Automatic annotation (TrEMBL):
This is RidA family protein. Residues 7-145 form the Endoribonuclease L-PSP/chorismate mutase-like domain. InterPro entries: Endoribo_LPSP/chorism_mut-like (IPR013813), RutC-like_sf (IPR035959). The lineage of its organism: Bacteria, Pseudomonadati, Pseudomonadota, Alphaproteobacteria, Acetobacterales. It holds the Pfam family YjgF_endoribonc.
Length: 156
């Protein structure tokens, strides 16, 4: 199959998608219902390892958090590609992203961290990447990850 416009955009941006991460518990990586794909929360894994560990406000910098959120989004795209049978051109819209930020009680820059994922969505999918979003701080995440991001996408 010839590469599509989204695959071409990824190449032009110098983005290499990681391998799909296997679920670490009793769930599936994505569910397709009608023209919607719900992708389970993804951690900032790259080459099988977390890009950072710990909490924002206690050792993880804002820039590390943004980079982790971006890595989470790239892992969402990997799962989304699988849900679309390998054809990312089927993606019509990034509908919603949900971000979970492991942080101290005093940390308040959740939105800036989550911009790492949101900026990547727009960078990759253009206007179709603009989305609704929820971002919340949490006391901990699986594997001591600083960020986890889930997504809802519309496909053709």
């Amino acid at each position: 199959m010839a590469a599509g416009r989204i695959e071409d955009r990824l190449r032009a941006l110098g983005i290499r998608l990681p391998e799909a991460a296997a679920p670490i518990a009793n769930y599936v990586p994505f569910c397709v219902t009608g023209n919607l794909v719900a992708v389970s929360g993804q951690l900032p894994l790259q080459d099988g390892a977390l890009t950072a560990t710990g909490k924002l406000g206690a050792g993880v910098s804002l820039e590390q958090g943004r980079a982790a959120a971006r890595a989470c989004f790239l892992n969402l795209v990997v799962q989304l590609r699988a849900a679309c049978g390998g054809d990312l051109d089927r993606v019509r819209r990034v509908v919603r992203l949900g971000g979970f930020i492991a942080c101290t009680a005093e940390f308040t820059q959740h939105a800036q961290v989550m911009n790492g994922a949101s900026d990547a969505a727009v960078e990759i999918f253009g206007e179709a990447g603009r989305h609704a979003r929820t971002t919340v701080g949490v006391p901990s995440l699986p594997l001591d990850a600083p960020v986890e991001v889930e997504g809802l996408f519309e496909i053709a």
